[in-house]
Design brief:
Layout lengths: L11 H6 L10 E8 L5 E4 L2 E8 H13 L4 E7 L16 H13 L4 E6 L13 E2 L4 E2 L1 H18 L3 E4 L6 H11 L12 E2 L6 H6 L19 H14 L4 E4 L5 H10 L4 E5 L1 H13 L4 H15 L3 E4 L2 H12 L1
Parallel strand pairs: 1-3, 1-4, 1-12, 4-5, 5-8, 9-10, 10-11, 11-12
Antiparallel strand pairs: 2-3, 6-7
The protein binds ligand PBG and zinc ion (ZN).
Ligand PBG binds next to helix 6.
Length: 327
């Protein structure tokens, strides 16, 4: 006697009843890139639908997000002036600090402001911290000191969730200490805990103006080949005090998402990165796929692999599709 799996596939209602994973609007965090100026809204050629925006435009964008039911943003600052240590990120008057203050002033508790904490958008060399020229790399422990300062800039400005992405060893402990010593005991940290040195970040570096001027990030980001190390990285950040873990990129690393899901009880986020977005957009433009279905199938795979939270440039499109499928 064979089993009749098709019994529970016979109509949409029963298919819905036995559905195991489902993408919801509340799962999404939408990335935004803030630039100096007024009335600036500049589309990125490699990422159609993604813009660099000045603070006033970001404020309008947030209104639109809230209308779509999206109430979490991930904020990246792109300063006009860059230097060797990313001073703009360490100033109360820097682009990120002013943007956080203005967004929080207007939207308060209605909008969760997650802040990416790294230096590559702020340094003239485009690396994620202070250079160690002897080794052609980034000085880990010197960078931890400015990471602590940067975390306090975010905290004082009103960040709701700090998301360090620089892959420095000890960054979570350093940030937790700085926050706790300054009275921010309730400010959570979402670590980019397992972040690979990936070619999928290509388009992001156009929008964030953060390409390294020499070399690459392989001396601090992870080797895409390493599965055990990927798990160890995230578990270490849990020990150091991370509140939420992350795997980045998403699609090529779903095995790693599953490994971490099974080894940790913490909430888990995936970053559906720029190159993943650009590939789908290019396929849509070429007319070679059913874009909306491929998009929802891709997003569902993140949930099935074990992710709770999805950072995605597709969030607005997904929110519209999800609203449509309900109504
Ligand atoms: C900065 C940072 C990067 C991304 C998020 N934060 C780029 C990098 O490490 O080069 C990538 C995001 C994307 O590709 O969408 N450390
Ligand atoms: Zn960086």
């Amino acid at each position: 006697m064979f089993k009749r799996f098709r019994r529970v596939r016979i109509n949409p209602i029963i298919r819905g009843l036995v559905e195991e994973s489902r993408v919801e609007i509340k799962d999404f965090i939408y990335p935004l890139f803030v630039k100096e100026g007024r009335g600036v809204k500049k589309e990125i050629t490699s990422m159609p639908g993604v813009f660099q925006m000045s603070i006033d435009e970001i404020i309008k964008e947030c209104e639109e997000l809230l209308k779509l039911g999206l109430n979490k943003i991930l904020l990246f600052g792109i300063p006009d002036v860059k230097d060797s240590i990313g001073s703009d990120a360490l100033s109360e008057e820097g682009i990120i600090a002013r943007a956080i203050r203005e967004i929080k002033r207007i939207y308060g508790a209605d909008l969760l402001v997650v802040t990416d904490l790294c230096f590559c958008e702020y340094t003239d060399h485009g690396h994620c911290g202070i250079l160690d020229l002897q080794h052609n790399s980034v000085d880990n422990d010197a960078t931890l000191e400015i990471i602590q300062k940067q975390s306090l800039i975010h905290a004082h400005a009103g960040s709701d969730l700090i998301a360090p992405s620089g892959m420095m060893d000890g960054m979570i402990e350093a940030i937790r200490d700085a926050l706790d010593e300054n009275g921010f005991v309730n400010l959570p940290i979402m670590s980019y805990s397992t972040k690979f040195a990936s070619a999928y970040y290509g388009p992001f570096r156009d929008v964030a103006e953060s390409s390294p001027s020499f070399g690459d990030r392989r001396s601090y980001q992870m080797n895409p080949s390493n599965r055990r190390e990927a798990l160890a990285e995230s578990l270490e950040d849990e020990v150091q005090g991370a509140d939420i873990l992350m795997v980045k990129p998403a699609l090529a690393y779903l095995d790693v998402v599953r490994d971490i899901r099974e080894a940790s009880l913490l909430p888990l986020c995936v970053y559906n990165v720029s190159g993943e977005y650009s590939m789908l957009k290019a396929a849509q433009k070429a007319g070679v796929i059913d874009y909306e279905r491929v998009l929802m199938e891709t997003l569902t795979s993140f949930k099935r692999a074990g992710a709770d939270i999805i950072i995605s440039y597709h969030a607005k499109e997904a929110a519209r599709l999800l609203a449509k499928s309900k109504g």
